[in-house]
Amino acid sequence: MAEMNLLQAINNALDIAMASNDKVICFGEDVGVFGGVFRATSHLQEKYGRARCFNTPLVEQGIIGFANGLAAQGSVPVAEIQFADYIFPAFDQIVNEAAKFRYRSGNLFDVGGLTIRTPYGGGIAGGLYHSQSPEAYFAHTPGLKIVVPRNPHQAKGLLLAAIRDPNPVLFFEPKRIYRASVSEVPEEDYELPLGQAEVLKEGADITLLAWGAQMEPLEKAADLAEKEGISCEIIDLRSILPWDADTVAASVMKTGRLLISHEAPLTGGFAGEIAATIQERCFLYLESPISRVTGLDTPFPLVLEKEYLPDQLKIFEAIKHSVNF
Amino acid sequence: MSMDIQERVIHTPEFTPGNALQIPIYRVLQQDGSVIPGALVPELDEAQALKIYRAMVFTRVLDERMLAAQRQGRLSFYLQSTGEEATTVGFAAALDDADMIMAQYREQGALAYRGFSVEEFMNQLFGNDQDYGKGRQMPIHYGSRELHYMTISSPLATQIPQAAGYAYGQKLAGQQRCTVTVFGEGAASEGDFHAALNMAAVLKVPVIFLCRNNGYAISTPSSEQFAADGIAPRAVGYGMQSIRVDGNDVLAVCKAMQEARKLAVEQNEPVLVEAMSYRLAAHSSSDDPSGYRNKAEEDKWRAKDPILRMKNWLLAQNWWDDTREKQLLEELRQQVLAAMKLAQQRPPARLEDLITDVYDEPPALLRQQLENLKAHIRKYPEAYPKSAGGIDHG
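YS: structure for the whole thing
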């Protein structure tokens, strides 16, 4: 075990992936000598050479188009989009190409080797264009997998699994806790399962569900609620697509209540999909309406980002409201 | 100023005109089949020349017959390549058969040259149970792993940066192969085109960008597509070599592509080839060109028929004669007709394949959705005639 922050865990996962398979190639804007603007790819070029870790021109649609071609050829590209806010020029290459490559060719060709890493989320004074959480746009696209880790241990195991998964994976990294989140991380090679949620804490009164950086305020809110005698079950969804409805439904059948929290805006957010599925599967078990604590339906603000974000106090209030419904 | 830009300092403003670079057209053959004196001819023996010719004629016959089938209501959609056969067959003939082709959708000639059988064409067109694409894509979206021909995708230009990536992978694997991506002059307006050229030039990948400049993007003439001298000069702006070729001259296309391939494979230099031609047919079976261009213009290009030009050359070589021409046409028409009948009679794609290949394995939710759908079809079989007969009724 070694103490690592989330960036070091990602760097470590990339290092292991590149060492264990020479088809793994890392590229994106500034990922070469510089090691990425957040330093997630530090020293990889030094270790594995310019052919396998390199800078690209500043063109997101080109990066993902190039990555799709590499994956189709049999390489294992790990492409970085510098901020999730800048992934949209590549939307067509992700949604129309990567996600449909295998299906449209009848499995003659696929881009299963593709992993797209991108930092997402607010709380870093990044304003409109360095704060977004775009997972819901991609969750509407069959053929993609979407993964969001909550801490260094999770990040390493999930990223290694994403790189080796035979499907294209979008890996959203919670940049607010890149350095703040520190944990013990096994130094060896290991994978954590995609498509499986994790119950972090068992409880009896309400199920609290989130992913990525949002796990932190969720756990703090649970502490506040516990002090008032409310027993919270906490689940990290980990994979947005495909998502683990079974684990969530089993929990809600036990607690009778569900609260979902994400930073992205409410309308069209992934919490809506979860709520619809859970009310179908758990209708007769529900004691109160499913609660969503999310960002506002506005672009991401700058000066007032604390007001915008679904923090522990907003979640705490929603927990009490749900329990007292 | 960037350290990579040549510095020549001036002291009065001096603009470089937009038409400063005019790229000539490389041509070998005249329409009567004679080789232009002094023109560089590709090395082509009789067997390969006849193979090229056969693929060109096959493509024309297939296009004529399948458009008719679409008009008869047998087929939902079709897309001809009439007038561009010299480009679509000629480029494939210049390659190693293991080079990857990532085409747009009007390059059936290249597939025909590589040996995609008439049955394989038909299975895709009819989306039957033998279609490699499992009935998922509209007609003409062919693909073949065996023939190194990437399955066609409708969105324009997406294959261009993919080709750069594919070629980078080939280079890394030390394969001595290249990737050729084909697209129209309209698709070259897409961002993906520019992204791809720049990345390929910077990363030095063995890719050939083959632009079929056929004058039209559906109804939009090239004069409304770009202000510059076509597509070829753009490559120079990205720092790569570029050539323009008469796209109706199979020998010129073939020779230009052979030379481009050398640059790509031997020197890891990306190359752009612009083939000048004309889309003689409509854009597709859903289009009617009489609304946007006149017959006189079409006739002018019909007189430059690339198949006739090659036939004239073959006759001049004494490699061909009118009897063999007649036999070939008869044979190919019979082949197409017979294969069409068979493909049309085959069962449609399987219901189970609605959910396969979305992921490597169908997730639980998809399996559940298929079960629900089957239960529904069992209840209303007459509403779903394509699949009702094929599902178990347990």
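YS: worth flagging: Residues 58 and 244 of chain B are 26 Å apart (CA to CA).
IM: good catch. Also The two ends of chain B are 75 Å apart (CA to CA).
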